[in-house]
Amino acid sequence: TTFVNSIDAPSLALLVPILHRGLRERSAEAKKKASQIVGNMCSLVTEPMYMIPDIGLLLPEVKKVLVDPIPEVRSVAARALGSLIRGMGEENFPDLVPWLLEMLKTDSSSVERSGAAQGLSE
Predict the structure, then answer these.
(1) By CB atoms within 10 Å of each CB, which of 5, 39, 79, 115 scores lowest?
(2) pLDDT for 36 beyond 90
(3) φ, ψ for residue 113 (rounded to 5)?
(4) Could you give the CA distance from residue 102 to residue 83 in angstroms, rounded to a whole number?
C-alpha cells in the first residue's frame, strides 16, 4: 500500500528548505530524490498555487540539476520541471522556456544542450 498525505502551506514551509538542500547536494542520488519530490509536490499540495512563493527558491536549483553531468539525474530533473508546469501552469514560469531555448543554442557543452532538450520535451 502507498500512503499519500496532502501538503498544506505550513507543511511546505518546512519541506522546501530540505528539498533546496537536497538539490544542492553533491550526491547524484540526493539530487534525483529531491528533484522527484519537487516534481511530485504539485499532486500532493492541496492547492498547487501555495507553491508559487517557494518556486523562486527551488526552480534555480532544479535548473542546475537539469544540466548535471549524469544523464539519469538530468532525466529526473526534466520530469520534475514537466510536472511543475503541468501542475501550476506555464504562466507561472515565464522565463523557463526562453532559458531552455537559450541553453539549446549554447556552444558551451553537449550536457547543457541535452538537459535543455530533455526539459523542453517534458
Answers:
(1) 5
(2) yes
(3) -65, -40
(4) 21
Of 28, 1, 7, which Cα lies nearest the Cα of 87? Answer: 7
Rounded Cα gap, residues 47 and 4, in angstroms = 15
| Exposure on the CB side of residue 13, measured as CA atoms within 13 A | 3
| CA-closest candidate to residue 97, choices 120, 122, 74 | 120
Q: At 14, which amino acid appears?
A: L
Digit-coded pLDDT (tens) for 59-113? 999 999 998 999 999 999 999 998 888 888 888 888 988 888 888 887 777 887 8
Q: What is the SS3 string spanning the chain?
A: CCCCCCECHHHHHHHHHHHHHHHHCCCHHHHHHHHHHHHHHHHHECCHHHHHHHHHHHHHHHHHHHCCCCHHHHHHHHHHHHHHHHHHCHHHCCCHHHHHHHHHHCCCCHHHHHHHHHHHHC
- CA atoms within 13 Å, Cβ hemisphere of 7: 20
